[in-house]
Amino acid sequence: MKLYKQIGDKIDMKMTLTDEMGNTLPAIDVFAMAIEYLVNDMHDEIKDRMSGVIEKSEVHWLITVPAIWTDSAKQFMRKAGEKAGIDDRKLRIALEPEAASIFCRHLSVEKRIDTTNVCIASFPAGTRYMVLDAGGGTIDTTVHEVQHNGTVKEIQAASGGGWGCTLVDQAFEELIIDLVGKSVYQEFKQESPDDWLILLRDFEVKKRTMKPKQETKVVMKIPQTLREQYESKFRQNFKEAVESSSYAENITFVADKMKFDAIVFKKLFDVALAKTIQHTENLIRDPAVRNIKAILMVGGFSESPMLQERVKSCFRGIDVIIPKEASSSILRGALIFGHSPTSISERVLRYTYGVSIYTQFIEGKHQEIKRVMTDSGPKCRDVFSKHVERNQKVKVGEPQVTKTYTTVHRDQKAMAFPIFASEMKDPKYTDVGCKLIGEMRIELPNHDGDLLREVEVSLTFSGTEIEVTARDVKTGKLEKGSIDFHG
Q: How many H helices and E strands in the chain?
């Protein structure tokens, strides 16, 4: 969740992560070590199961990320993959709702836990369906439409928020804190981490099986170390603490076990469910996504009967499709996407993108405060040169627009283009309603004092990552520009 940012929020490559014991490590190292472990584990499995050798250089890797992540977060994951030893040319970023959608397009009715008998694979061209990717940290939604060639196009830009099932975990921890106090709970985590993990894992099991109509009590074992730390600090029996709390009517403590009325556990889901349903309702009301045939539920949280029932009850006129492999649909779909990246034919942009440029200053049109003198005369700075706009539909693999930019100083050895994103459709200046998200730099060798050096820049926003190519008009040299999203 450290990588879930809003537009314009920078991700510091030097940022650290803090564990429950208060120890810190550089975030890039933590991510890289996790990826490296998986890479090595996969190769070990291959050696055990297959004859012959598959070299690491022969494997193409995909790292899946939420579609609502920023370009900065995607680049962070790419750098973590490279730090883990994956060749940049062998690494692709996949968007999780898209991967799940691709997998379920290959899914038979028998591989489902719902009873709708509706199969995405048999949807005719023009059919629209929503992908609701409910994970641990984020809820990620997008809307797809089936094409005549069997591919799907995105008709609504990905949206969502940090409302995953970790909100349920947080609600449970807050309940325990209400009973024992924050200081006791923190000491318990610090001094008895094994018992703390056992408590949370026990809750994870209960959380996954909680049903909307359940009336039986939920029984959990409370670690002795937690009880002892409470009794040592407050000089009160733990059982008495429960009986004198605001939960006295719904929670009882017997021997070493806490018995919760089902209603208490169900309330732990309230915030996560409410935010998810509200967001989904807002999306369905949008005229741009009318006539949705089905909601496809994927991700670990989609396996929760609580979320399943809430979605079904709130959207009765829409088929709800839940694959048996809801939690692994993204993984399986990413594998298909790796072999067939054109499975997604069209995407919808979340923001308006452009670069900051100097343009000829025009009296009465441009603000006087933005006038600057250059070798080629007076220019207006901070002008937003739009490449694509919000909600624009873009075809995968095709550059959206190519623009030519000219140097403004004779001794320029490079052209730097700060890249901005905006929720406005047509910004005029980059310092009004725009957020700096990165910078593109194009080197200009052999400048020879030539003032009119031109560079044709093509930005492609239709992939899972922004791509840029530039051609030096004077030399004809074509190169891939670099975009630094971290500054």
A: 12, 24
The answer to whether 131 touches 153, Cβ cutoff 8 Å, is no
The identity of residue 396, as a single letter, is V
Contact 294, 117 (CB under 8 A): no
Kindly report the number of other CB atoms within 10 A of residue 235's CB atom: 7
DSSP 174-196: HHHHHHH-HHHHHHHHHH-HHHH
Q: What share of the chain is helix, strand, coil (3-state, %, to 5)?
A: 35, 30, 35
Nearest to 128 by CA among 244, 286, 250: 286
What DSSP letter does each residue of 217-251 carry, written as one string?
A: PEEEEPPHHHHHHHHHHH-S-HHHHHHTSTTTTTE
Span 75-96, pLDDT tens digits: 999 999 999 999 999 999 999 9
Residue 348 gets the label, from left (phi > 0), alpha (psi -120 to 50) or beta, of beta
- CA atoms of 484 and 465, how far apart (whole Å): 12
Question: Length of the chain, please?
Answer: 487
Rounded to two decimals, the pTM is 0.82
Bridge partners (DSSP) listed for residue 64: 94
Residues above pLDDT 90, as percent of the chain: 53
CATH numbers and ranges of domains, the chain? 1-86 (no CATH), 166-267 (no CATH), 349-484 (2.60.34.10)
Q: Which two tokens stand for residue 267?
A: 């309330």
What is the predicted pLDDT for the residue at 112? 53
